[in-house]
């Protein structure tokens, strides 16, 4: 999923991201407003990952779960 799509539809992803990543605080994730660098850093810090691991984890999550998150918001 292109990151421009993620940024444009950020509110649709906040809830599902927080459900999948248990150490995420919804208010913090909302504040990022789709800023990929901030989200990667936050994931790394909260889930004991390197920046590379966090970046790969997010990319994988958006490829696997992004479309489903959008469908769930539309329903």
Brief write-up:
With 75 residues, the protein is an all-alpha fold. The chain has helices at 3-8, 10-20, 26-32, 36-46, 51-74.
Write the layout of secondary structure elements.
Elements: H1 3-8, H2 10-20, H3 26-32, H4 36-46, H5 51-74
Helix pairs in contact: 4-5
Strand content: under 5%
Overall outline: globular
Radius of gyration, in angstroms, nearest whole number = 11 Å
**How many beta-strand runs?**
0
SS field, number of helical segments: 5
Structurally, how many domains make up the residues? 1
Order of SSEs: HHHHH
Proportion of residues in helical segments: over 70%
Structural class: mainly alpha
What's the N-to-C terminus distance? 20 Å
Q: What's the average pLDDT? A: 89
Q: Pick out the low-confidence regions.
A: none
Task: Outline the biggest β-sheet.
Answer: none
How would you describe the overall organization of this protein?
This protein has 75 residues and is mainly α. The protein is globular, with a radius of gyration of 11 Å. It has one domain (3-74). It has five helices and no strands. The two termini are 20 Å apart. The model has no long low-confidence stretch (mean pLDDT 89).
């Amino acid at each position: 999923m292109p990151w421009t799509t993620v940024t444009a539809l950020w509110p649709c992803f906040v809830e599902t991201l927080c459900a999948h990543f248990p150490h995420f605080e919804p208010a913090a994730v909302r504040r990022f407003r789709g800023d990929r660098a901030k989200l990667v850093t936050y994931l790394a810090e909260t889930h004991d990952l390197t920046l590379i691991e966090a970046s790969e984890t997010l990319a994988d999550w958006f490829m696997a779960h992004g479309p489903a998150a959008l469908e769930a918001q539309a329903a």
